[in-house]
Task: inverse folding
């Protein structure tokens, strides 16, 4: 885990006091809402449907038990006893009072947390593979680079007022668990033929109104040149991004309009200049950062056998646990998707319980996933049964990772001021419809993602099955799309046909999955079948007329 | 009818114009007629509301019912957490 140095701490502390003053000036009427709004947003404070909402940054989704306990404490003391883990690997509180906001940030600062880069047209909190540092398929841990980029991007004076928000994801494995190609910049650690470490650089991906998979802009960027190259990428965007049109202001539009080749040419030209400025850190600094992400002491001789006689435990084991790169160890994903539950929500007690598990069993580390689950990254296989038992006690042992009920859903119209329709009730109905675990397991991997508006915080474009809520004359209506993926085979889903009511879309999902079951060939996931046969069989099943 | 709504500056609570002040309960809301915008401006300047705007509503059996679902959800609370928001409290 990264530990703040005196500069980090001083920056965060000063920021809290600055914000306290800004809040006081707003409360006294010295500042209007128009003046205050951009300032509060820079500190993660939104005004949503029912109250202020505070978004707390969890840089690259990594946190320790002390920080997790603090999140639970804030939920209890200042909110309504729960928090919502988001698709940006952050956490949101929905019921914050303005006169508490600075106190909350002060409490967060005591555990090296903040709400910087969670809003506004800046480089946002950087996301990463939730299995980073633990995955067996990893070239190198991406988090030291994510941390380097955090330090480079935080309060970067040139990039505080970009044309639009800017999201970066970093991964270190072939399997893309972070939807890297759907980011403004996606970085994948690779080794070249000579064995040197570097990045594949993808620029211009994104979701929202105009979803795009990012093209590859640089096949191999030496890892040491990362900051300079990204500085060049951002400069070209900052100069030519469409500030004239909110809907065309993301970098994906620029890259699309001028073409990947021309964008690359401009970046390389700028890079030649930037590289002379000496922005990249000395090797010693990168080593200092990397040392803080060193693998904890894990015994490679730890026993690898697991006693599977309890059938419920065995089910959970098969679904939620993958091998760690160190023998005798495992990575556990804790599902925040119980049947009928709210995806990503956890009570303060559950947050505390997960913190405790991390402290006792996972070398004090947790990860938040973009799929709104929590990971214990460094667990001894011998401890898995004890972990499962405790998860059972706190309602956190749902065995549905990557199954149809492991739904990503944004807050939607139940909380979000921008929403057209509710997302959460749909997720609840779908999890209830498919509650039978045998049925879910038979259907296999299905990534179902729901957004309450075209902003796509629920990643619906990247869903094998995506659902988008739209407003049809003041009524909620839902568009269904198939064929998206946020993984290494990234693709954007296609709308299947006319929209549905809430119940209609649940029926349509069921018909689509039953159609898949009827026509799949051995080993095919829903997505594979859809890609093989196209939309027609699904359309026919979904829109078939009832016999007269 | 036209209601004036916004958020309480300090708590962020959804509030409704009652003719003489603000209430968290839509049952207390009154038709602002053509005065909505002016009321909002005046009250915002006095820091009694944040971001006021006018919404269309119809008469209901117990309280005005906003025409748009978003305003109906604002008036009661999240439909997925009926233990939270004003819906969880006894209306006076
Ligand atoms: S997708 Fe839309 S409704 Fe959902 S959280 Fe984002 S802005 Fe709100």
Result:
């Amino acid at each position: 885990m990264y530990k703040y140095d005196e500069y980090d701490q001083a920056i965060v502390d000063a920021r809290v006091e600055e914000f306290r003053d800004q809040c006081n000036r707003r409360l006294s009427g010295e500042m209007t809402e128009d003046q205050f709004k951009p300032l509060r947003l820079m500190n993660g404070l939104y005004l949503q449907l029912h109250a202020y909402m505070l978004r707390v940054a969890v840089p690259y989704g990594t946190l320790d038990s002390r920080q997790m306990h603090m999140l639970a404490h804030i939920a209890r003391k200042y909110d309504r006893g729960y928090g919502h883990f988001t698709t940006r690997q952050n956490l949101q509180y929905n019921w914050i009072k303005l006169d508490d906001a600075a106190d909350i940030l002060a409490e967060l600062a005591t555990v090296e947390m903040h709400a910087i880069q969670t809003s506004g047209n800046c480089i946002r909190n950087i996301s990463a593979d939730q299995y980073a540092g633990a995955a067996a398929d990893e070239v190198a841990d991406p988090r030291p680079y994510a941390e380097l980029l955090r330090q480079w991007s935080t309060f970067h004076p040139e990039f505080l007022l970009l044309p639009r928000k800017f999201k970066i994801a970093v991964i270190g494995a072939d399997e893309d668990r972070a939807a890297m190609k759907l980011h403004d910049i996606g970085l994948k650690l690779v080794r070249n033929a000579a064995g040197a470490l570097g990045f594949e650089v993808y620029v211009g991906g994104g979701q929202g109104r105009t979803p795009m998979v990012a093209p590859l802009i640089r096949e191999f960027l030496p890892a040491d040149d990362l900051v300079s190259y990204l500085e060049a990428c951002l400069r070209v965007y900052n100069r030519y991004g469409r500030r004239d049109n909110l809907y065309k202001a993301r970098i994906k539009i620029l890259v699309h309009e001028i073409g990947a080749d021309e964008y690359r040419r401009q970046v390389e030209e700028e890079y030649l200049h930037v590289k002379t400025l000496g922005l990249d850190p000395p090797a010693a600094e990168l080593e200092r950062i990397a040392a803080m992400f060193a693998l904890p002491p894990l015994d490679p001789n730890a026993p690898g056998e697991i006693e599977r006689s309890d059938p419920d435990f065995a089910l959970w084991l098969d679904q939620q646990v993958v091998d760690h790169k160190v023998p005798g160890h495992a990575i556990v994903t804790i599902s925040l998707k119980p049947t009928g539950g709210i995806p990503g929500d956890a009570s303060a007690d559950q947050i505390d319980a997960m913190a405790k598990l991390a402290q006792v069993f996972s070398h004090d580390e947790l990860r938040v996933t973009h799929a709104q689950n929590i990971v214990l990254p460094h667990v001894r296989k011998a401890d898995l049964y004890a972990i499962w038992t405790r998860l059972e006690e706190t309602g956190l042992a749902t065995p549905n990772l990557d199954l149809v009920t492991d739904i990503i859903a944004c807050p939607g119209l139940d909380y979000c001021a921008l929403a057209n329709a509710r997302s959460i009730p749909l997720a609840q109905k779908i999890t209830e419809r498919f509650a039978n675990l045998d049925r879910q397991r038979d259907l296999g991997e299905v990534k179902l993602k729901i957004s309450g508006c075209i902003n796509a915080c629920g990643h619906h474009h990247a869903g094998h099955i995506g659902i988008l809520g739209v407003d049809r004359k003041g009524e909620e209506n839902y568009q269904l799309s198939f064929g998206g993926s946020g993984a290494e085979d990234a693709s954007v889903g296609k709308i299947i046909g006319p929209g549905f009511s809430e119940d209609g879309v649940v029926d349509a999902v069921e018909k689509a999955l039953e159609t898949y079951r009827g026509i799949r060939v051995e080993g095919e996931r829903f997505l594979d079948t859809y890609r093989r046969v196209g939309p027609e069989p699904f359309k026919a099943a979904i829109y078939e007329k009832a016999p007269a | 009818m036209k209601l004036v709504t916004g958020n309480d500056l300090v708590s962020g609570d959804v509030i409704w114009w009652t003719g003489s002040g603000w209430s968290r309960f839509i049952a207390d809301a009154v038709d602002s007629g053509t005065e909505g915008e002016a009321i909002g401006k005046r009250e915002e300047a006095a820091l009694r509301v944040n971001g006021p705007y006018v919404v269309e509503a119809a008469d209901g059996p117990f309280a005005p019912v906003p025409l748009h679902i978003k305003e109906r959800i604002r008036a009661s609370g999240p439909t997925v957490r009926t233990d939270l928001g004003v819906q969880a409290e006894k209306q006076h």
Summary: Residues 418 and 453 of chain A are 7 Å apart (CA to CA). Chain A has 17 helices and 20 strands.
